[in-house]
Design a protein that fits this description.
Layout: H1 2-11, H2 21-37, H3 44-57, E1 64-66, H4 68-79, E2 81-84, E3 87-92, E4 95-101, H5 106-109, E5 117-121, E6 124-125, H6 131-138, E7 145-151, E8 159-164, E9 166-169, E10 173-178, E11 182-187, H7 194-207, E12 212-216, H8 225-234, E13 245-250, E14 256-261, E15 273-277, H9 284-294, E16 299-302, E17 310-317, E18 320-330, E19 346-348, E20 388-389, H10 394-409
Parallel strand pairs: 11-12, 12-15, 15-16, 16-19, 19-20
Antiparallel strand pairs: 1-18, 2-9, 3-4, 4-5, 5-6, 5-7, 7-8, 10-11, 13-14, 13-18, 17-18
């Protein structure tokens, strides 16, 4: 009973925060019962970490209690270099689903695709597995092997794939000039160097006398907020837009915690812009698309985006870290991105033919377990434009749209 009293005493300060005494007592009893009677011995510190992780994991899919290795993995992903296979994961129906596959990685070479379900990792079934655990099992030393049991979309039987891990380097910004007149920039992730790389690329394309810009954000899972706001700011002229807002975030009690504003001039001097998005475009990608759409600065084309409109704040705690959802993103006109995403101005299928299939897996934020609800619409909230184009390829359609916009401008 002495140990129990010590734990109880340690939790007493939380009573001032409004925690009921009976639940504090229940926690102490459960902790002691597990520690004393569970079939295997578990160290008390590990058991307490389990308790904390369980609390955080019940909040939403994006909050997390991270040990030092998990924190290092998070930092590596924003640096654009890490070990693994080259996949972005999410959860679908309590299983691990591939959201995005990075080009020229082991996953790409193994022909893994979006919507593939990972049933098992090295023989360990993924049902009920957290994203953190799935990610840690997939990542490993470069040159080592991992075995994935994959259920391909529309397949009746799973297949087993043995894939070699390697150091993944994600080139965050790639560009080229299409047909010697259309600037094309693909952003794979918003990392620490993305903003400067993007500025270099856009200046080079303008120097090549581009007549229009295609900004490709397809399968971009997001990343750093600052990189996305720098990018949106490059296309906005603060003197020509009604509000300077690029994105804002509301926390508890509607308190505005983030308010990123446009400043300066449009670096492209008003060149027509088409932004390509799909359901793999999330978070920071949606911020850029939403800002340019609300300010009527670009045509958004492709498929509705993922809908990850929540903000996570990383809080260091005794060598570990708490990644806690602290607010929700809103576009300049006050539209919430959360569990809704950005609806393109022009819907274009990712395939040459749009195939209606009620059984197709379409992963969105709203499908994730415990996702945050979409808040009530703000006053004067802008309705999203909607049009449908089928039987066309997204990039080719973007080029055709730029051509049309160029004619209209003339």
């Amino acid at each position: 009973m002495c140990t129990k009293k010590l734990y109880f005493i340690a939790l007493i300060p939380f009573l001032s925060a409004g925690l009921p005494l009976d639940q504090i007592n229940d926690f102490s009893l459960v902790f002691e019962t597990v520690k004393d009677h569970y079939v295997d011995h578990i160290d008390e510190k590990i058991l307490m970490n389990y308790a904390i992780s369980g609390m955080i994991n019940q909040l939403d899919p994006h909050s997390d209690y991270m040990d030092p290795s998990a924190l290092q993995s998070l930092e590596s992903s924003t640096n654009g270099k890490f070990g693994g296979l080259g996949v972005e994961l999410s959860i679908k129906n309590n299983l691990i689903e591939i959201m995005t596959v990075v080009e020229n990685t082991p996953a790409w070479d193994a022909h893994l695709q979006s919507h593939d379900i990972i049933l098992a990792i090295d023989g360990i079934f993924t049902q009920g597995m957290s994203l953190k655990e799935a990610g840690s099992r997939i990542r490993g030393e470069p040159g080592s092997m991992v075995t994935l049991t994959i259920l391909k979309e529309n397949a009746s039987l799973p297949v087993e794939m043995k894939i070699e891990r390697m150091v993944i380097k994600i080139p965050s910004v790639q560009s080229n000039l299409i047909d010697n007149q259309w600037g094309y920039i693909k952003i794979s992730v918003f990392g620490q160097n993305t903003a400067q790389e993007f500025l270099n690329k856009i200046e080079a394309l303008i120097g090549q006398n581009s007549k229009g810009i295609i900004l490709d954000l397809r399968n971009n899972p997001g990343g750093l907020l600052k990189a996305s706001t720098v990018m949106a700011n490059c296309f906005l002229d603060e003197k020509k837009i009604q509000t300077k807002t690029i994105v804002f975030a509301r926390g508890r009690n509607d308190e505005i915690l983030i308010n990123e504003l446009a400043s300066g001039k449009d670096l492209t001097n008003g060149l027509p812009i088409v932004v390509l998005v799909n359901q793999g475009s999330a978070s920071a990608s949606e911020i850029v698309a939403g800002a340019l759409q609300d300010h009527q600065r670009a045509i958004i084309m492709g498929e509705p985006t993922f809908g990850k409109g929540s903000v996570q704040t990383v809080i260091p705690i005794n060598g570990k870290a708490l990644k806690l959802t602290s607010s929700r993103y809103f576009t300049p006109s006050g539209r919430s991105i959360q569990a809704r995403g950005i609806t393109p101005d022009i819907i274009v299928s990712s395939n040459w033919e749009q195939v209606a299939d009620d059984n197709k897996l379409n992963l969105k934020e709203q499908n994730l377990n415990k996702h945050l609800n979409t808040p009530s619409p703000q006053k004067n909230q802008k309705e999203e434009p909607f049009a449908t184009i089928t039987n066309d390829f997204q990039l080719n359609q973007a080029i055709q749209t730029l051509k049309a916009l160029t004619i209209i401008v003339k």
